[in-house]
Amino acid sequence: MNFCSACGAQVAQKIPPGDNRLRYVCDACHVIHYQNPKIVAGCIPAWEDKVLLCKRAIEPRYGYWTLPAGFMELDETSHAAAVRETLEEANAKVEILNLFAIFNLPEVSQVYMIFNSNLLDLNFSAGAESQEVSLFSEDEIPWDELAFLTIRYSLKFFFEDQKKQSYQLHTGDIIGRGANHRFLTGPKTRY
Amino acid sequence: MNFCSACGAQVAQKIPPGDNRLRYVCDACHVIHYQNPKIVAGCIPAWEDKVLLCKRAIEPRYGYWTLPAGFMELDETSHAAAVRETLEEANAKVEILNLFAIFNLPEVSQVYMIFNSNLLDLNFSAGAESQEVSLFSEDEIPWDELAFLTIRYSLKFFFEDQKKQSYQLHTGDIIGRGANHRFLTGPKTRY
């Protein structure tokens, strides 16, 4: 951030009075430009023992498989965002059931919210951001070609719960990337 | 938003190619300035049968009572945000237990994430944003002087669950304000 989006003057990084973090502040109109994490909302569209995945036609992770998910928009709920993303990426209609997973990704300032859902029919097809969409049972999942760690953990927990026929909320933090990442289960924070 | 924060040129509202929403777009450097909902993270600091509330010393809702909660910052997890807010607003140290409530407020583009927590000791005091902090049992809660509907529903569900000695995740959408608001339980969205 270089310029004030309100008045166009240059901004500087400083700690505002009463604050304890560096913010972008406009010296001309005194607006403080806060920046905050984003929510990525998505779902696991289930049909019998299978789930719908999308092969990405956009960067990042072009050509890798993902659950339908994307940045939540202004003026919508998290579950409406999941429904919208599923329609946009897979032309698929779902009924949202319950919140299934929440992952914090502090290193990229994102919070994932993934819902369980039922696919309402089999009239799905690749949306503009997908090359291909398809149903996969657990042993058909392309585990080595998944786009994001959040997708891998969502699917891992989903199939574990599917075996138990009991779906619980899964929460955790994903720290680091690739083979060196750590998954920290649950909110474990103590002052 | 009037000016591009990257290059300082004027922005215009338009629907970018491949998109379906109005965005602020810079005609000079072509950056699209996306805007997204914010997460408010907080907790219910419990001590025996009581919970800690803070009387606000800032607007909005100056003088009304709230749970410690505030906007999640970049680079942190949602539960770390709840711990930080509790320390800032009440100088109180908590151990976060589990995610207790998630509320969508689409009309103000916020998602609340409220955690159950245990207060670690009684050495709390008003932080800079609070006039006063105090412990309340259910029948002492100032129900008519609570700052936000999210706080009212968090406390209502907390004391209901306290009676059952079983704390579950509560999810819902809050639509409208004041006496005319509606609380829609759970994610209920179907294409």
What does this structure look like?
- 2 copies of one chain form a homodimer.
- By secondary structure, chain A is α+β, with helices and mostly antiparallel strands.
- Chain A has helices at residues 78-90, 149-164; strands spanning 11-14, 23-26, 32-33, 38-47, 50-56, 65-66, 69-71, 94-105, 110-119, 130-136, 170-175, 182-185.
- Chain A folds into 2 domains: 1-35, Ubiquitin Ligase Nedd4, Chain: W, CATH 2.20.70; 38-185, Nucleoside Triphosphate Pyrophosphohydrolase.
- Chain A has 2 helices and 12 strands.
- In chain A, the strands form 2 sheets. In chain A, strands 4, 5, 6, 7, 8, 9, 10, 11 and 12 form a 9-stranded mixed sheet that branches. In chain A, strands 1-2-3 form a 3-stranded antiparallel sheet, with no helix packed on it.
- In chain A, strand 2 and strand 3 form a beta hairpin.
- Chain A starts with 10 loop residues before the first strand and ends in a 6-residue tail after the last strand.
- At the A-B interface, helix 1, strand 8 and strand 9 of A face helix 1, strand 8 and strand 9 of B.
